[in-house]
Design a protein that fits this description.
By secondary structure, the chain is an alpha/beta fold. Helix content is 60%, strand content 8%. α9 links the parallel β7 and β8. The longest helix is centred in the last third of the chain and has 62 residues.
Amino acid sequence: MHTQTIFELSQEAERLLQLSLHNLQALKKMPTATFDETSLPGTAENANVLPLHFSSRGVEAQQATLHNELRKITRLEMVLAIVGTMKAGKSTTINAIVGTEVLPNRNRPMTALPTLIRHTPGQKEPVLHFSHVGPIDALSQQLQTRLFKYDREKLAQKLEIDKDMAGLLDRIAQGNAFDKHYLGAQPIFHCLKSLNDLVRLSKALDVDFPFSAYASIEHIPVIEVEFVHLAGLDKQLGQLTLLDTPGPNEAGQPHLQKMLSEQLARASAVLAVMDYTQLKSISDEEVRRAISAVGRSVPLYALVNKFDQKDRNSDDEEQVRALISGTLMKGQINPTQIFPVSSMWGYLANRARHELKSQGRLPHPQDQRWVQDFAEAALGRRWRTADLDDIEHIHHAANLLWEDSLFEQPIRKLLHAAHANASLFALRSASHKLLNYTQSAREYLDFRYQGLTVAYEELEHNITRLEEDMALLRTSQERVSDEIAHEVEEALAAAETFLHGQQFEIVEAIDAWFHEGKLVRIARDSKADLRLNAGLTPDQLILEDEGQAQIVISKIRSGCETILLAAQERISRGLALRFDELEHTLTRSLNDTMRPIETRIKEELNHAGFRARISFPAFQPSTLNFNTRSLFTNVISPEDVPAGQAARASSVRETVSRWLNNPSWGWDDYVVTRTRYVIDVGSLHQKLINHIAHFCEQIRKALAAQVDVSVTAGMATFFAEFSLSLAGLQESLRDSLAIRQQNESSVLALRQHLQHCIRTANWIHEDARLLRDDIQTLFAADQP
């Protein structure tokens, strides 16, 4: 690593960041330089639409981003943001990366506030610093006043009061403040759990939680601990820190989507934790959209957790990488930066290996619950406490579990690389943020300067024409909405036809299996009596031996599994293809309809001497990638029947009833007597057909509802962002018109001020480009 070169580059990055902040401050002081989006029509309905760069909110967001980069540069800190939904296993993944348990796991949201986890060599026991605790203490005082007159039973109707929540209520009633420092895992867990319970309690009592007080990254809690996987490695220039971010809608707080976007925009790199079993779910889509928004500025990585739930029919590693890189992330993430893993196995295996190395044995499973989880994962469900005394065997089992977790690859390719190149990641992040700022600043300033040089009449004319264009936009929105509604209707009709055909094929295959001699052969091979109904079709199988009855049940199950497997693959492929086509059709319809408006606006402004840069936002249908595979989860996974259990608790009944999400149906007429076993296959056959029909109907309803929601949300955001862009142009022209009505000396002074800001932005842009190139050269030189 070139220490002197990095030091010089960090000084240059600091100089450019300071200059950019000074330039932004100068823009804020410029008369009527920015506009307030709250005055624009429809903004209240589109609160999630990102602000324009030089609206009031946009300028504040840019200042916060540049200040954050300046803070990271001063310590050469690489911040790796970890993002994922509540059930994706984000906390477990962070624990696996760190190598010890630093974040608690609960079956509820656990990241209401972002939290930093900083690798600190030599800090064996984690310590949490929460210096900016004042807003939380102020909130506690508000809640104390509110709770003094609030009925506890009434509160229990709005909020689950478990042991943790009850303790928090007592603490608030007693007026106990939060500490600024917590040493050890349990005190840290207690602090983080209390913070998250405070969010839930505030919501129940209609008291605003002070999220805005923790918008700056330097104000959020920080955990310092040595990462086990980095212990003993050579000290590197720079600092590696993880950022645990809130999910897009954790703790029932929808505005956390905005906080998530802001935190990701300030990271040096982003690691998405995705759930292998829910890759196309709505919640995962929200996370993908959030990281897509910053994908052009920071490197993206993905851990696909719960890969241990893969069975012989699921997608393998290469298929998962192709799905995420191509279909889900539209090429924004390299397949080599996607890692299927089991975070739980990785955490448990590494925790066990660390304990064996430091203590020589594992703690007693009654003292630390994770030991029980490890033993079950590494030794199987039938482990005994005595098994833990065989240290050599336990060490071998831990190594095998670590290998099975597939965590070695991301630790080596991501964590070790991030640690070794933390300073370069920090510098690269700063250079990209600088380039983003200067690009938008130059475009905005040029447009404002042109407004002071074109003819007065041209300004008035273009303001009027933009009003006409916005009216045309509203008319076009109504027209294209009708067209898209028609496309959606046709797509759903095609899906209905497809599902009807698939249902017919499944039923036909089931009928054939039950009627075309399969059961006759099974009866003959099992020495069972076969009773036929009036239609001469198999109705009952009668066996004298319980073991043979279980074998017959296993064969029936196997036959059904084969049919359902084929149906799963056909329906998954068919629906995925149809709704991919729908997404492309909708995007094309929007572009074809709106392109003439965009072209007209550009031509009008160019004719007047303006170089306006407007472009379409991306259409983001949030659930068109319908997760048909998840509908079939556990449809046909076999379950071994324990020895001695009555044959009626068969794997077919349990497996297929889970598939149909209706555990009440079964082989009610399957009777066990002292001397023989009767399997009512006719009843089973009919109930299976009925529930296949019911399940296909549920697919139809889910498709219709989710496609409608996704198209509505996607179109609303598309038009809101385009309208906001046009409103920004119009407001800038109006500002210019107002300034032109002032005296000539004021106009001249503002023109000179703009010219100075433009020159400064150009200088910063060129120097930032050279900085980025130098950093890329160093990155390339450090590659093996």
